[in-house]
Amino acid sequence: MITNERDTRAERLLQVANEMMTAARTAPKGKGFDIIEVAMVTGETIKQLSDAMLEYSQKTGLKFITRDAENILHAEAIVLIGTKQQIHSLNCGYCGFQTCAEKQQFPEVPCSLNSVDVGIAIGSACSVATDHRVDTRVMFSVGRVAQELNYMPGCSNIYGIPISSSSKNPFFDRISKTPVAK
Q: What is the pTM assigned to this prediction?
């Protein structure tokens, strides 16, 4: 039997995406609090996310989101990593408040350790993709719109990692095909 790489590419990419989700889940977390959430976007949902990103770009005026919305259409899957908010009661001051009790008055301000946890989980997930030579790019824009769409209820600080396996990484050297409105 002969199996052409092109015939099994999608299946293998989904396997890598699942391994990336495992790596994000098992990444070290501040005080061991398991508040990281991980999800995968595939198929038609990628197109829906792209469309929502285009709308969000128009609404906010953030032009780079238009470029990213076009760009994710080259992905076979997108791994989303975010965090639920939880104060760690360390009074570390990294969030800008001297104590966690003071910070609690402003729930919209993320605990810095939660943000660090997301970063560590992203690094763990991307290292899996690298080990498999899968193309990635960490995108704030994807996560921001996924948060708007409530893809990960109760989460903030969401980032998206589109993945692809092609002869050239489609997530670099990107130019938007949509003209800039003047």
A: 0.90
